[in-house]
Each structure stands twice: as C-alpha cells, then as structure tokens.
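Section 4.2 – Deliverable D4.2 (structural model, holo form)

The reporting period included a commitment to supply a predicted holo structure for the target in complex with 6-O-phosphono-beta-D-fructofuranose. Inputs used:
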Amino acid sequence: MRKIAVLTSGGDSPGMNACIRATVRRALNRGLSAIGVRKGFDGLIDGDFIELESQNVSNIIQRGGTILHSARSERFLTPEGRSAAAANLRNDNIDGLVVIGGDGSFRGADRLSEEHGIAVVGVPATIDNDIWGTDLTIGFCTAVNTALEAIDKVRDTAAAHDRLFIVEVMGRSAGFIALEVGVGSGAEAVLIPETPTDLDAIVRKVRKRISMGRSSNILVVAEGDEAGNAFEIAAKIEKISGLKSRVTVLGHVQRGGSPESIDRVLASKLGWAAVDALVDGAGSCMVGEINGEIVIHPLSDAWTKKKKLDPLLLVLSETR
Ligand code: F6P
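Output (structure tokens):
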C-alpha cells in the first residue's frame, strides 16, 4: 500500500476535521501519500482529489464541519456511479480508502469494496451515535452538549412563564441524542423512535406537575418519533388536553461548532487506527472504540447489527 484516500460523507459531525488530520498524519507517518476526496462519494465519482500534506491539515483539529466537504451522493447508489468511482481510484493508483461517516456511507463503501475489490475502512462519525461496533460516534458528545446548553436556556424561559415546551432534537431513526439530553436536562418526558409514545400519559404527568405547582415542563422529542414532529405533537397535546405549548426545533445547530475534547480525541484515535487497519490488510472493515479499546469489525456489521440504547437511561428518563 502506497497511497490512500480519505473522504467525509453524509451529515457532517464535529470532529470530522480532527479525524481527517489524524488519517493524513498517520498515513504520512507510515510512508504513504494521502489524497483528500472532496464532497464525499460525489467527489470520488468526479475525481475531485487533492493531495494532502501535513501542513494542509494544520489548525483544523478544533474546527467544526469538514474541510473536505460532505454530501449525500445519489449517484453513488448506482452501479455506474460506483464503477466511475473505482476507476478514478485506480487511475490515481490509490490502494485504500478511509470513509468518515455514518452507516449509510458505510453501506455504499462496502458495495464499492465488494464490486471492485477496493480496500475500505469506515470511521463512525455522526451526531446520531446510531452505529453498532463503537460506544460513541465522532460528534455525538459535542452535539449533545450543544443541545443541552440550548435546553437549559429554554428551561429558564419555561420557568419564567410557567410554560410547557416541546424541544425537538435530531435523530430521524434513533433516539440516542434525545435520551441523553432528556436525562441530562431533567426533561419531563423523552419521546424517541425506539419506544412507543403515549401522549395521554404524558399529558397526565404534565397536569399532575402543574397541580403540584411545578409548572415548567419540557418534553424532548427526537425528530423521528412515531407521534410526529414537535409541531404535530404540540397540536395533538392541545387537542387532547387544551394545554398550550411552545416549540423549539434545535435542528442543524446540533451539527456545527467546535468539537469537544472527547470527540477530538476519539477522532484522532480512530483516524490513526483506520490507516493502520488499511496497511495491515484488515480488508473492508470499520474501526470503533469499545470500553476504551480500539476494535475492528466487518463494515457490514454497522448496519446489520443494531446498537442498543442504554437501558438505565431509559429507566431514568421515565422516573422523574
Ligand atoms: O447526520 C445525521 C442527521 O443529523 C440526522 O440526525 C438528521 O435527521 C439528518 O442528519 C438531517 O440530514 P440533512 O442535513 O441532510 O437534512
């Protein structure tokens, strides 16, 4: 192996830059050249490559977003798109690819590997933390703290006005962010896609608290909850009970910002490990960290196995 490429794909997450930096520095350190692919798999198809030297990744460890840009590539979902991508890698004599992204990106990368024999290593980076094979994904902790900071502020105004607030956080199909910030902010209820939502029970709980004089109430809802988005839930609650609420959708603010130390360090370890996995011939795989140890699993585990929510957090989110 003499030359590797790195790209970021899917929704960006804080720490992606730290991971690019570690990948490039480890590659150079092991005597390889490093190529950055811009705009995710679209850049692979278009041959949008830049050579990365050590100085190109200076002063980025603390920056949110991704210097390589990211994309959700429709073209890469097609066999033609993947063939074009593989041809570009071959023409540029690139022997291995590091894909920093979420499970959707890993799925595409695995297909590229299967169909064209390209060695690919996935590094789990998404604010959603919904990837099996790693305790944490890069960006999750920063996103959680961003959301927590916002909810603490919402709590102040909720208390000042004796109001019910419904705060929507990201997580189209996973409740990791909602559960973590729900528990961390002392929310009165957490609504997530993985568990059934009983709006009548939530209304009873809120009414009971109001009758006890505890009139600031916050419901944290993951955007993919079965009861709908925050606005729909607010309307349903008002219909059931007459209770009026205010809605705050945190949205993409959760994806930006400077990564916290935990994400910078995790990104650095995993970028390093990804290069080592490529050089050591681990084949199509993902790197992760479990109980403080770097682990390597087949890439397909990332979407065929389902990461579980922490059962203690589920209990805690119910008991308040
Ligand atoms: O990257 C994950 C995620 O942030 C999800 O939590 C969210 O549902 C989705 O991306 C939003 O994606 P987009 O930015 O493409 O709208």
